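To whoever picks this up:

The nightly regression suite flagged DNA-directed DNA polymerase as changed. Nothing in the input moved, so I suspect the structure step. Input below, exactly as stored in the fixture:
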Amino acid sequence: MYQALYRKWRPQTFADVIGQQHVTDTLRAQLQSGRLSHAYLFTGTRGTGKTTCAKILARAVNCEHPVNGDPCNECAACRGILDGSVLDVTEIDAASNNGVDNIRDLRDETRYTPAQVKKRVFIIDEVHMLSIGAFNALLKTLEEPPEHVLFILATTELHKVPATILSRCQRFDFRRIGAEDIARRLLDVAAGEGIELTEGAARLIARLADGAMRDALSMLDRAAAAGAVDEETVTAALGVMGQDDGVHLAEHFKTGDLAAAVTLLEEYYSAGRDLAAVFDQMLGLIRDALLVKTSRTDVSALISPAYTVKTLQGLCDGLAASTLIAWSRIIGDSLDRMRSAANRRVEAELCAVRLCSLGAENYDTLGGRVEALEEKLKNGVPVQVVQTPQSGGMTPPPPRDEDAPPPPGDEDAPPLIDGEPAPQAKPGKPAGPTLTLWPQWARLLDALMGKINVGALTNIKLGAKGAIEDGALVILCEDRMAYILAHKDETLAVIREQAAKLNGGPIKVRVREAGDEIIQENNAKVDELIGHAQELDIEIKTL
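Regenerated output under the current build:
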């Protein structure tokens, strides 16, 4: 009968356990010195070797010929425990035996001395599933068990275990197994089983396993059903993206090619891949890209083995860190919605739309948006500027219908009757000062190159123009972003300096949003009131 790989290749000695040397070395030292505790608590995420180490420890304490703290697996005690014929070693599933009565039965069994081996060993798996009453029933026995009894508790959720239990056990924390260690183990297992496994496929499985050796072996078992195992086999068998697929999808988001991104998602969907898992993998890619983008040291040991530093650097060209952070926030929000969405495909495609058309609201700060613009300009990525009335842009007048009658002018006015005075025009607001474009504006923009922030200069070029008003240079900004950047003190100081050089002398520089002309009207009543106040020696303050 076929046996699953994770069962067939379960480590039989502490030396075979992968990635938990801090645990295995301590246990072997205790076995060699005879300083064993009466109760152990193994905690850690799934598939990291907790139950495996518990079984090895159960054999090691009863082994007739231990080898440097490891069981020999050849003596009668070791063979009996391995095949399950020794009843003195009991493994209990706390998920299904979590009541007070179950623990009372266990407590009664501890009174009897072992019949075939040195110690009676009770392995309680998923101990956090015990009820409060069961924990209380176990307390006294766990604190002072008979000399011939050893308790080994295992849990994946340490926070659910009462402090009274924790204080009575010697605790060992099992770490997630490194991806490199998992990949090497997979290659060894594949060689032993005669499975053709490529190194790239081993690395991909190791990344997907997320530190769990059992999960990795189960994935290999599933992928090997079709024969030789390469990256394409793994992605097809497990319904996930390959490393090149993730980079290609990110490239489409980077260039804003929505059609290509949605087409790629359609291919994944048709292939039966879970689109939520696809974007979850994208988060891992973004995480690695952020490390490469922001770190000033070598991070090759910190990134996923599925990607190379060179690949990630190519992806990061033209992408600012703020853009990657905005991507991660958008994907995270979409994943939350996908959990309850009636149609995950639609939600995934909407996520692609958001990623391909980032707006100012997607960035944390104004500086983040400016950083993204600078990064695109530095790497030659085209920047699209969309002006809307809401953002302060100028709306062109609607086209005039050629067939429509011309607006009434003076020639269409009715004739005046002799002796009748001409009608007076209605008083209106005085016309504002006329604006004349500054002829040196283009030369000023060239002079500012390299002297002010690249993002500020780009926004000024795209959304502002220079005009002369009452002898002063007025920078009229057509959108709010250009106004904010041009109005900064350090930027304005450089503009004044360069404008004075081009003007041949000092020149006043003002920054204003288009349509924000200030017209002051004379108010006769206010002037009269101010005059009376001055006659009475009342001080007038102008605000």
